[in-house]
Amino acid sequence: MLKYFLTRLIHLFFIILILKCLTLILPYFLIRCYSQAASILLCFVIAKFTFRYTKKFFLSKKVFPKRKAILITGCARGFGKHIAKHLDSKGFHVFASCLNPNSSGADDLRNSCSSRLQILQLDVTKDESVEKAVQYVKANLGSCELWAVINNAGIQKGFLTELTRIQDFEDTMEVNAFGQVRVTKAFLPLLRRSRGRVINMASLGGRLAGPMAAAYTMSKFASVGFSGSLRHELHLWGIRVISIEPEFFETVFYRTDMSTGKNLSMRVEDAFVSADENVRKDYGEEFLRKFKTVIGRAYPPSPNMHKLLENIEKAVTLKNPDAVYKAYGNVLNEFILRFCEACPVECQVFIVNTYFRILGLPKPEKANKIYENYHCH
Ligand SMILES: NC(=O)c1ccc[n+]([C@@H]2O[C@H](COP(=O)([O-])OP(=O)(O)OC[C@H]3O[C@@H](n4cnc5c(N)ncnc54)[C@H](OP(=O)(O)O)[C@@H]3O)[C@@H](O)[C@H]2O)c1
């Protein structure tokens, strides 16, 4: 891997050298064209990174929340609950759907929001439940129009691919990917009337694949792909499709599986116990012990939830919203994560593995032995 990385650097060095030499040997008028091209390229790069400031002046018109309803999935806790409260405080009519409408999270919404907010049951994995939700929304819209559907519900299951059951992959896809498709399809007839918008909660992991979360990453790549395709199709109807791609924020998500109440460490233990014997032997107890501590520190969440809410608000209210909003907790995280995203995949592998080594994740004992044997023969 290091060799690959160095080869890339050498390649870059050669390109710089060749371009420098060209400026010496090219005739004058060609050098001028060449420097023009370079400065135009530079303009594009600067424009890309500074467009957000110009947008604030020219594309800041907002829609009026009066008589606009929004359906949100997975509102009993985490992002969904924050989003429901925030949009309610902005004057929208919120249909806050919960997997369990009798949960303490749902009660909290009832107690803390305006009378505009309505709670309904919705399991995004069940056709009948989605159909009931459509009927409920239709019956309770009153004089409102359904302006937006926010596909927020999501789960995270599994760790290393070899320690993750196929069932966990299926469950994750069912909620995070097919759930979004199911809900969107059901509510599109209402959105067509309002020329509203579909807002899909993807993740940074929907573009930048991280390790130890293959099931989740697959489902979020699927979400990003779904939004991309649907965006073209719904353009004909004047419906916007917006993908929200946040980094890690502080919610119970990932840390605790609420259906079982098990924390990260317990879930890793379970996954290891139920893995194939050969897999367990190859990874070894020492790896498992370290893995449990490293996984808890690997993705430090940001407490700045308002950064995510700002993006959601833009997606819902701006007359000309972006197609994609990436929510970062702070400027440093934004810089590091954007840099990683721009890197060639091979470099990403190098960076991620170095990061995990620094955190203290050892190579499984067997991996070292196999490596030694391979090089002895
Ligand atoms: N937190 C992050 O750092 C982060 C980063 C990027 C993207 N995201 C995405 O943001 C979304 C929300 O994440 P979160 O952090 O708020 O997670 P969370 O705290 O675990 O909340 C997820 C919500 O989804 C609901 N849900 C689960 N399965 C459902 C189903 N079958 N039907 C309907 N609702 C269901 C849960 O209901 P119950 O409470 O009843 O279980 C819960 O209310 C997810 O799509 C996640 O992938 C999160």
Description of the molecule:
By secondary structure, the protein is of the alpha/beta class. The protein has 13 helices and 9 strands. The protein has helices at 2-25, 28-58, 78-89, 104-112, 127-140, 166-194, 214-235, 264-273, 277-298, 305-317, 331-342, 345-359, 365-376, and strands at residues 68-72, 93-98, 118-121, 145-151, 197-201, 240-244, 256-257, 262-263, 324-325. The longest helix has 31 residues, at 28-58. The structure holds NADP nicotinamide-adenine-dinucleotide phosphate. The site of NADP nicotinamide-adenine-dinucleotide phosphate has 30 residues, from helix 3 and helix 6. This is Ketoreductase domain-containing protein.
Characteristics of this structure?
single chain, 377 residues, seven-stranded parallel beta sheet, two-stranded antiparallel sheet, 13 helices, 60% helix, binds NADP nicotinamide-adenine-dinucleotide phosphate
Topology (elements, then pairings):
Elements lengths: L1 H24 L2 H31 L9 E5 L5 H12 L3 E6 L5 H9 L5 E4 L5 H14 L4 E7 L14 H29 L2 E5 L12 H22 L4 E5 L11 E2 L4 E2 H10 L3 H22 L6 H13 L6 E2 L5 H12 L2 H15 L5 H12 L1
Parallel strand pairs: 1-2, 1-4, 2-3, 4-5, 5-6, 6-9
Antiparallel strand pairs: 7-8
Helix pairs in contact: 3-10, 5-6, 6-7, 8-9
> How many strands, what sense, and barrel or not for the largest sheet?
7 strands, parallel
- Relative strand content: 5-15%
How many beta-strand runs?
9
**SS element count, helices:** 13
Shape summary? flat
Mean pLDDT: 90
Hetero groups in this structure are:
NADP nicotinamide-adenine-dinucleotide phosphate
Helices and strands, in N-to-C order?
HHEHEHEHEHEHEEEHHHEHHH
- The gyration radius over C-alpha positions equals 24 Å
User: Helical content, roughly?
Assistant: 55-70%
Sequence stretches where pLDDT stays below 50 over 5 or more residues: none
Report how far the terminal alpha carbons are from each other.
21 Å
Helix and strand content put the structural class at alpha/beta
Q: Taking strands numbered 1, 2, ... along the chain, how are they ordered across the largest sheet?
A: 3-2-1-4-5-6-9
GO molecular function: oxidoreductase activity
Protein name: Ketoreductase domain-containing protein
Pfam families: adh_short
Family: Belongs to the short-chain dehydrogenases/reductases (SDR) family.
